[in-house]
Give the backbone structure.
Amino acid sequence: MSSPEPQTETANVPRHVAIIMDGNGRWAAARGLPRVAGHRKGADAVRATVRAARELGIPYLTLFAFSSENWRRPKDEVMDLMELLKLYLRREIADLHRNGVRVRFIGDRHGLSDDICALMDRAAETTIGDTDLTLIIALNYGGQGEIVRAARQIAEDAAAGKLDPSTIDEACFAQRLDNPDVPAPDLLIRTSGEQRLSNFLLWQCAYSELVFDDTLWPDFGHAELQRAIDLFGERERRFGGRSG
Ligand code: IPE
Ligand code: IPE
Ligand code: MG
């Protein structure tokens, strides 16, 4: 019989991991392939990473799939990305549901096509009772846009006399963000060696630990996620306080 896993192995598992999945284009270019081949392989890495997150006991995983700025890419690449998103949602929902994965979304639904919105609704509804892992897909998402949407709601409530402006604080503001009941990411990972946020989760990452990994997203999987979690485990989180 093998000896039990030491308790400390799971003691430092982050509650919420958010990932900026970057490097699909470079992965394809390095092989002389079209960019879409990188995005396709990127979808395989999503599958592997969702499985790994479940195995590692991470309760919340947010994946940046399409930013509000990605519309600036050439039309054919945007179309390829949208087709792959649809394919992923169509093909994976049953499997995700079987594996206890709840699917939710953040981002601005305006600008997304009706068929994608319908697939998003179906994914969310099918998996609403699943509790092993919550997978949050950021689609047409930008942190500034999310903050502006929250501010607009607050302004509307104040203008309608439903909210006293003097009571607006961080908690009241956070309630108007896209997924107010999801805890802020403990760990933010960006692949492909780029070291920037690219407008991802600007409010929520105020105190997230950042890990930049050189792996290109299509090559990311269990080992890379484990490595980021190990790095996270070595960090001391002080939240502005002090340790001693
Ligand atoms: C990430 O890979 C996928 C999306 C942004 C949708 P990229 O397409 O940004 O790949 P690189 O950065 O060009 O290598
Ligand atoms: C960020 O990657 C968006 C996603 C991963 C969906 P980009 O490749 O679009 O970011 P920039 O343009 O290099 O900052
Ligand atoms: Mg990129």
Remarks:
- Confidence is low (pLDDT under 50) at residues 1-10.
